[in-house]
Amino acid sequence: MSTEKIILDCDPGRDDAFAIALALASPGEIALLGITTVAGNVGVELTQRNARLVLELCGRPDIPVYAGADRPLNREMVDAVDFHGNSGLHGIDVYEPANPLQPEHAIDYLLQTLTDAEAASITLVATGPLTNLAIAMERAPDVMARLKQVVIMGGAQRAGGNITPAAEFNIYADPHAAARVMRGGVPLVMFGLDVTHQVLAGNAEADNMRRHGGVAANALSGLVLPVSEEHVGPAQTPLHDPCTIAWLLQPELFQTRLVNMEIECDSPLTQGMTVVDMRAKTGRAPNVLWAHDVDGPATAELIISRIMAL
To answer: What is the 8-class DSSP label of residue 72?
Structure first.
């Protein structure tokens, strides 16, 4: 298996932290080139700090972090502090890490890196609102077309929403950006609540990480302790964002289908809804490889066991 070169665009965020850690825990399969951050779970001034903090806790402060968009394209900002806490990393001690934020803007870094790289050699993993991607696609569509693929945590079909009855948070936070990315012509793979609500961890996993894991696992263990029930039960919390990295590592754990997806941008009732055409009823061309089922326990075990070995 060849090493997958990735840039991680994220809004850490408790589960984003696990996506970062899982990538770092898989050096034979994943090469994390850099991290770009966006406003989402908390503001961008916190998401960039949190990304640097997680890298420091995982022993990789050398990986550069770039701050990106501080607001959605065309709506008021929403956050998810009720799930992630005011710091964005509820469950661990938060401090200012020593590794510095890079002075370059995230979108400039992304476009320059893709320009310099061989075409189709870099995968962009997006685990927050898609604002940075949408701006980059608008600014330089020919450069973004050099991506191998974009692997996204976002959306929901049969699971329903987790911020409104219809919408998942990442898409709802910037639906106009998501709609632009859907039309961007880059291969897209998406992992929504239909699968991530099956990939669960809680007290048992946190205890195992503390007792048997390395320094990083011990430091991050509190992030799997539930803040709220989030509609899947009080004992466990979904590992949303690391599902993107888990698929890069073991795609056989997921069932996927090539579908058409459109984003509802304007309806006051369903803004941010991902309209997934599973039965090809619309006649619209497929634009997303949609994960619709998963071996949840095996995926959770992959995530936790890899991070424990850091």
So the answer is: -
